[in-house]
Amino acid sequence: MHLNVGGSTRAELRTKLGSHGVLLNAYADMLLDHTVFDPRAQEEIKIIERNVGELGLRTGATLLEVFAVARERGFALCPPDTGPYLRLAMASQANAPDSVLSAGRSPVGALKVASAPFSDDVAYPKGFYLRVVDGQQWLRGFRCDHEYLFSPEDRFALQPL
Question: Mapping DSSP to helix (H, G, I), strand (E, B) and coil, where does residue 66 land?
Answer without folding.
Answer: helix
